[in-house]
Structures are given as structure tokens and as C-alpha cells.
User: Fold this.
Amino acid sequence: MKNEKGNQRERLVYELGILLQPLEDLARAVVAPSPARYRIAMAKVQAGDNAWRKTVQEFTTFAHDVVFNPEFQDISHIPERLRRVLTSQVNDPALQDHPDQLQRELTRLLSEALAGFRAYIARVPVDWEPVVFEANTPFTSYLRIKECLTVVERRLHYFDRYLKPDFFELFLGSLDTTVSVRLVTTSSGVKAISAVSNLARQQWSDYQLIEVASSDMHDRNLRVDDQVFSLGTGVDRAGMALTNFGPADSSVEAHAELDLVIASGRVVHQT
Assistant:
């Protein structure tokens, strides 16, 4: 999908993950880390802070005189604020004697920082534009479609008569397991993905595979939170031949129609 801000937002999400990786590693450590390891991790985060701010500035700048400055300030200072609060925790003698508690605090602080990040970047407008993927561009097409999922927070619903197993590996692998997932397909699609769907339902906290009649669904639609996208072919085939992809009607009425399709179906797998 042709969307410069969408590309920048995807890069922003990726770079924040890389920037905070040293702290994420400490939060997941089996043995509660020592204060020294926290200080090393925070130094690594600080080392990448300038590059991070440049990426944020690019994302929040729309022209030389059009800058979303409040959003720039909120987003760019996330790592700094996290380091500042964490430093006070690490230097607290009471917590130094309780490494497990300190690790729990780190987990909480990371969760709050990421939640704030998602809220801040959602305030920067990203206007999706329709695009036609050229034939023989499957990888490029995949990357463009994946951009739509970069900041999914609540739900990912996909409607496809002929759903294929590739969808899981390509688009669900990096999805947070708290996101609501609805895969709506026909008996043909259910048969094709039944095995992998049975595994997926054990991982996502709100997952359903829904079978509907062929007469109830024709076009392929992808619902990401409150934005609906229309796709000319299945996501696993995008770019193999000339493919249309773009924003669709996302009105209240359009969402209601998609909800009716879901309600008309039979739940095959669920959490």
C-alpha cells in the first residue's frame, strides 16, 4: 500500500523494539537481574536515543512548517522517561535487596511505556491510499499489507472464502496474543486451515474460526481495529498477479454488516 507515513510508523515500531530490547531481556530473565545489569541495559538504551528521536521527528513532520510537536515530544521521550523512572528504582536500596520485585517493576514500566507509545502514535494521522500491486511482487505486497497490522490493538478480523494456512505464518506470527482474532471463511477454507487453526486457538486469548455459507461472503476484507481494507485476492496470493488493495468503507453501517456475517456463521474453533 502506498503510504509514506505508514512506512515510517512501521519503522518506528520496529526501532522502539530494538531500542528497548536490552530491558526486555532483563524483564524475561529467569534469574532476577542485578542492579549492575540494569545499569548496563539502560546505558545501551541511552546510546540509541538520538537516532530514535530522529526517526520520531521524521514520522511527526509532514512539511517543513507542519510538525506534530506535542506528539513528537510524547513519543520521542518515551525511552528517556522510562530510564529516569527505572534509575530511581534501581538506586532504591529497598528494591536492591529484592531483585524479584525490581524485575516486576521493570515489567510494569515497560508495559506502561508501550501502551503510551501506541496511544501517542495513534494521534498522528496515517491516511491509507488505494494501490494496485504489480504482478510478480509478492514480497513487496506482503510488506505493504503487513503495515496495516503494525499498531493493531484490539482486533484483527479477516474474511476470505478460500483461507490458506500461509495466513497464520505471514500475519499472525507477530501478533499480540491478547488481540481479538476472527477468521471467517467457507467450508473449503475451514478444511484447508483446520490443523493450524486448532493450534492457534490455544495461543490467542480471544480467537474464533468461523464457517459461513458461500452466499454470505464474496469480497475479501481485512478489519484492523476500526479500519476496513479490501483485497482483490487472498493475502497469501497478493502480488502474484495484478492485485487491488486499499481502504474500504469503515462506517458504523459497514462494521455492522461485517458483524452480521460473523453472527451468521458457525464457530468451528474458539479459545
Observations:
- The mean pLDDT is 88.
- The CA atoms of residues 219 and 259 lie 15 Å apart.
- The domain at 131-270 is CATH 3.30.870.10 (Endonuclease; Chain A).
- The chain has twelve helices and ten strands.
